[in-house]
Amino acid sequence: MLAIVLCFHSSGLASQLPDYPFIHTTGIAYVRVTPDIGEINFDVHVSDADAEKALTVATARMAEIKSVAAQQGTQEEDIVIRDLKKEMKKDAAGANAAEPIYQLSYSVVLKIRDLKNWQAIMSPLLKLSNIDKVEASFDSTVRDKIELDLSIEAVKDAQRKASGLVGSFGKHLGAVTAMSEGKLKNLSTAIGLVNEQSTFLPEVERRQAIGEDLFVIPPLKLQSSVDVIFRIK
């Protein structure tokens, strides 16, 4: 996005904008990164007319999950069991409608710190009964550094765009007077570049993986967007 404003004829508009010639640019930088850590999230659901049997199955499944993870070096603190629920419902459609059905459920988060073990953990997990809503996510232990580097590159991109455009008019780029990660929404709206509902979504953000194979470790798509206002001199 590029915008040059040299003068204003509307006092209402000018009151919302800088009172000097400026250029507003958006710099973008993105990168694909190989993740080095991941998480497996899933639910365990057990139903039975016998409450004790339901509890036994739920407990056994928990032990199996911990065993699978431990065999691949996952530490106890990286196995999180939460949201334990116990409910009693009646199966109105069943042959024994008067008998209650006991339902036990809990959520599990496995933090995988060595992705070489990913398939060795995922494969036996998917073979277990009572497992539902399996989801995988990945991250990088150096994400903070990558994001900082991307922000710096996005600023350089904004500067390159601004410098090239003002140079084509025989002008020079002045000092930075405003900067924001993301969009300077009020400025963009005020000079008609976007409306209140519009959203800037680069192509790298629109491409979302749907139905990814749970055995595949996809690259991370990280990006930074920086809006900058420079004086024109």
Task: Sum this structure up briefly.
It comes from Undibacterium jejuense. The protein is α+β, with helices and mostly antiparallel strands and 233 residues long.
Describe this structure in words.
The protein is of the alpha+beta class. The chain folds into two domains: 2-33 and 144-212 and 220-232, no CATH class; 37-139, Alpha-Beta Plaits. The chain is built from six helices and eight strands, in the order E-H-E-E-H-E-E-H-E-H-E-H-H-E. It is elongated. Mean pLDDT is 80; it is low at 1-15 and 192-211.
Give keywords.
alpha+beta, 6 helices, elongated, 233 residues, Alpha-Beta Plaits
The biggest beta sheet, please? Answer: 4 strands, antiparallel
Series of secondary-structure elements, N-terminal to C-terminal: EHEEHEEHEHEHHE
Question: What is the C-alpha radius of gyration, as a whole number of Å?
Answer: 27 Å
Percent of residues in β-strands = 35-45%
Low-confidence stretches: 1-15, 192-211
Order of strands, widest sheet: 1-2-8-7
Task: Count structural domains.
Answer: 2
Mean pLDDT, to the nearest integer, reads 80
Q: Could you give the distance between the termini?
A: 20 Å
Overall geometry: elongated
How large is the count of helical segments?
A: 6
Tell how many strands the DSSP assignment holds. 8
Secondary-structure class: alpha+beta
Which range best describes the helical content: under 10%, 10-25%, 25-40%, 40-55%, 55-70% or over 70%?
25-40%
Protein name: SIMPL domain-containing protein
Pfam families: SIMPL
GO biological process, one term: DNA damage response
